[in-house]
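Cont'd.
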Amino acid sequence: MRKLLKIPALSVPHCQGGAAQPGDEKGPVFHEHWQAHIFAITMALYEDGHYTWAECDSYLGHEIQAPGHYNPSEEADDWDAPVDVAKDSDEPNRANYSHWRANCEADGSTYYDRWLDSAEKLLLDKGLVTQAQLDERVAALSEIESVAPRFVSGDFVSVRDVKPSGHTHLPLYLLGKRGTVEKDRGVFVFPEAGEHGDEASLQHVYTVRFDAQDIWGDGAPPSNNLNFSLWDYHLESV
Amino acid sequence: MSTENSSKPNPTTELRVKALESLLLEKGLIDPQAIDKIIDIYENEIGPQNGAKVVARAWVDPDYLERLRDDATAAIAELGYSGVQGEDMVIVENTPDIHNIVVCTLCSCFPWPTLGLPPVWYKSAPYRSRAAIDPRGVLQEFGVNIPDDTEVRVWDSNAELRYMVIPERPPGTEGMSEEDLADLVTRDSMIGVAKVEVPGPSV
């Protein structure tokens, strides 16, 4: 079976972001995992010499200063805005948190979007990726992410008791048998989709565990179990 | 980005990063372990606790302060802090007569090896513009009142130099260990939007 693209895990580091730093404001270094990743990707490619610091700095600066991205040389009216004084109970030693500070937080939160924009443009200009490749990958990942699983780990399921026609990956001795979903293995191409009319060609595949006795009967050792990869289509809730 | 899917919503930022990352992984241009390591370094190793140690050393050791004044990059490297965005360091000292505040009006330049990655507000356009135009107003927003006859110096990190404020050592800290002094020093005080305070006695 053809495994589709592995969606990068955007892993959570073993220490949650924001290890306590002396006198630091609350909050993680990276507020979202994707921000950590675009930062690290940009740094890694720089460290490997794919571009100079001046180059990536130039692309980032261009994005930050682009028209429509708030620029100090444009009207800086926010600091004239009426101060909306509200007590910030988390910071008793600070002045009341004002409208301006809120604007700073809101505007600054879009910062890594500029990193993403500049990284895409820099990598396109360097020929490391093409626009077609990016578009295709976005579309593919979008399609994969839109496929919702019907089951989660721990669900009790039974195998649909319908004998497949044509080539199948479903061992026939499982028809009608009951098992437990062990793990969702991700999205795969379902080769039998064409034979079942409107069945989706992309589906989740699960490891499903069956006790040997549930398949072979009481003669089987009670401590034996069998594990299979089964597509969403093959399974029903119990 | 995708011209043929104009009826679909724009891909999320997260999806775009995943797409870029998966492409680069597939092409062998990035290594997942290297990505995790970089994130780990900037989340856990590099941060203002580094700069705090520089400040504490400067407070207790006049010779070190002289070396900082003379060649801040080298003096900071003595404590083991150096690297990207810290290659050309300058320290600026707060005194009773002078208060320093640092900004990068053009983008977000910040002395990473000593202060870590900049806080959200530092990178914002409202800060970047107002710090240059109305630094006393900015300081008031951060709860710092500077007397009218105190000089306020704004340092714009517009080129290679990166600035770190050495805040004033607060009274009441005589006899404290260097380690305890470092614990008092906040990132905001080394940017110049805060003073170092001694915590009051707990009630």
